[in-house]
Design goal:
- It is built from one helix and 19 strands.
- The longest helix has 13 residues.
- The relative contact order is 0.19.
- It is globular, with a radius of gyration of 18 Å.
- The chain binds copper (II) ion.
- Copper (II) ion binds next to loops.
């Protein structure tokens, strides 16, 4: 474990730091009305475009769903699972009761990133449609959150995703957003800059990204925490906060 961390620290000098992404991936973004109404979510802290490595997750601080204007705590549904290298990830199942959009949200435990000397919290959400109910643009109220300006399901490959980066509810001018495609193994980045796409918001905190391939796309708006986190020895360290959102695109054919 220590050897691995040391190796990671050495690598950082020579190569850019891999972008961490908190994944919150439902097995579908649209629940069939005549189906069994259940959705399973995969919760992994990893590097989606490079398909790993997986980073250890502690028990999430918040996990729930916003549906029909009501917020439901789903932490009891979380099940730890072992991923690559025996790292802890989580899974959860949910059964929808009434038609409407389901906004799933997650606040993971802070992650200590030794290679960057900082703690990271990625507040993450994903919307699952059930019976075209509406409510996909409702804000959860996370400290950092992307407000979608495009309905975040039923998207074709080549559609643009647009959103507003908000911190404590207010738009963040010129916020930086990292974008990664959740690689299914079919694409190899020709060089490092292709792994993580970077876009900036405009003066109103709005950003746009056109998604060139089918699958899940992660948008990570990264802001300075404005407060400190805790390092492994309990000392204060810089804190990076991310507001993430996942959307799925499907090929038109
Ligand atoms: Cu990482």
């Amino acid at each position: 474990m220590l050897a691995r961390l040391a190796a990671a620290a050495v690598l950082t000098i020579a190569t850019p730091v891999l972008a961490h992404f908190q994944e919150l991936i439902p097995q579908t973004d649209i629940l069939a009305e005549d189906g069994d109404r259940s959705v399973r979510l995969d919760i992994t802290f990893t590097h989606p475009m490079e398909r790993g490595p997986v980073m250890e997750m502690g028990p999430p601080v918040q996990f729930g769903v916003l549906a029909g204007g009501r917020r439901q705590d789903l932490r009891a549904a979380l099940k730890p699972v072992r991923k690559g290298d025996g790292r802890t990830a989580f899974e959860a199942g949910y059964k929808a009761s009434a038609p409407g959009d389901l906004v799933f949200f997650l606040e993971p435990a802070p992650y200590w990133e030794a290679a960057e000397g900082k703690a990271i919290i990625h507040y993450t959400k994903v919307v699952v449609d059930f019976g075209s109910g509406g409510g996909w643009d409702r804000l959860v109220g996370l400290p950092v959150e992307i407000e979608p300006l495009v309905r975040p399901y039923g998207l074709w490959t080549g559609n643009a995703f647009r959103g507003i980066v908000r911190k404590a509810g207010k738009p963040v001018p010129f916020a930086e957003i990292e974008v990664e495609w959740r690689n299914d193994g079919s694409v190899r980045a020709p060089s490092d800059p292709f792994v993580t796409q970077v876009v900036k918001a405009d003066a109103a905190g709005q950003f746009t990204y056109v998604m060139p391939r089918a699958g899940w796309w992660g948008f990570a708006a990264l802001v300075d925490g404005g407060r400190t986190g805790k390092g492994p020895d309990g000392k204060p360290v810089p804190l990076e906060l991310g507001g993430l959102m996942w959307v799925k695109t499907v090929d038109m054919k």
